[in-house]
Structure prediction request, 454 residues.
Amino acid sequence: MEKTRVAIVGMGTVGTGVAKLLLDHGDRLARHAGRVLWLEKATVRDLKKNRSIQLPKGVLTDDLNSVLQDPNIEVVAHLVGGIEPARTIMLQLLDAGKDVVTANKALLAEHGEELFDRARALGRTIAFEASVGGGIPIIANISQCFSANQIRSLRGILNGTSNYIITQMEEQGEDYADAVRHAQELGYAEADPTMDVDGSDAAQKLAILAHLAFGVRVKWREIHRRGLEAFQLADLRYASELGYRIKLIATAHLHEETGQLELHVSPTLIRKGRPLAEVRGAYNAILVVGDAVGDMFFHGKGAGQMPTASAVVADMIDTAAGRTDITFRRLELWSDRESKIEILPYEHSKGRYYMRFHVADEPGVLSQITGILGKHQVSIASIIQHEPEPEQTTGSSSDESRDGREGSPLTVPLVIMTHQATESAAMAANTEIRNLASVRDEAVYLRVSEGDKA
Ligand code: NAP
Ligand code: HSE
Prediction:
């Protein structure tokens, strides 16, 4: 059987998984590719680091030139994270005549245009299934399987680390910092987990999906995004009491009346029992709605060594077999085609909202708050005032000492669910309420998914 010589640049979590599949399941891969995928080199930064895999002699190297200058290596899995040196390495690989497979969504979201232009100019390909949704084949589905459709919306959980953290806190009562550390140990998190928890990683993936599905060339930094900092453990409890779970949801929704695309990453309350509410741990899920196909739900491991390696190796097989060449040339991603779709300004988007305030337990406070909501045309669906937290028994509780109002009255949590309102109205009301003297500094404001949309 013919051989295609391949290399891996970056032998971290994902690179190691790719090497395992290439070395342990070579026969299976060869059957699918119609040729043997022969691992020629695997490059790392630090040769002295302990590796969890034993590679054949001569394969592991810290010399990228041994890949760049070997004309027999045709396909390279580029598995270095971040922007630099990842960008330079990818350009060097393309210039050296290699077809590239990558899992680096940050790099594509930031420099996709430059990289795709270079690949096209050189007649090379970039395959990137693993960049969104880990093992879920969402890129192939959107760019190929749904090509008879106008996609109407994409909604999903696109970051495994943050979903893992939420699940651990909710189900195991784990502390936030411990859950982050476990996500890192399990290989789910980015080198800098800030990108996972603040919604950036999900926004980068959403930018790629929105580009594929709607042709919009959106800069990921311009996508409105909030992350796990927007709520606390108490909100997971209150949401649960109301029959919801909180999930970090990435949304791309085409409003057909206006032709505008709503895009954001928002912690969102989703009714228990809805598919997205039940996604646990490092799993991702994406609900795609197409005008012909209807609703389609994808669910699978969105982070971790072997699920991600599964997507990378599938791309390597497609590239070696010549299939990527056909799809890449036809793909309009980062092409010159102008999209007619406009992005909906975030403040014009509409939704239901969950608001939690810590308010002084005094007469008249509730009417002040409901008055402000009414003034901004935000209608209340339900309101719960809890008794003080058990640990808060005096006016010098930790909450009050945090805002420096010694001797101030006891505070109680107030949870409000609204009916649909525009983001600008809900936000204006929320800001005005937070500024009331009777409202302490801890205030939470989250989106709520409409009953049947999850
Ligand atoms: P990782 O564990 O941090 O591994 C990165 C690897 O890159 C390390 O082996 C490192 O070498 C190597 N490296 C860094 N700079 C290098 C350089 N200049 N030359 C050669 N090698 C260099 O990262 P990862 O989790 O495998 O992620 C890789 C990519 O996949 C990222 O873009 C990430 O966003 C994406 N991704 C990850 C997952 C996941 O679950 N982990 C899922 C989907 C996508 P040393 O080992 O010597 O330090
Ligand atoms: N850090 C990412 C996540 C890896 O947790 O989803 C998958 O892209």
Observations:
- The chain has three domains: 3-131, 138-301, 347-448.
- The domain at 138-301 is CATH 3.30.360.10 (Dihydrodipicolinate Reductase; domain 2).
- The radius of gyration is 25 Å.
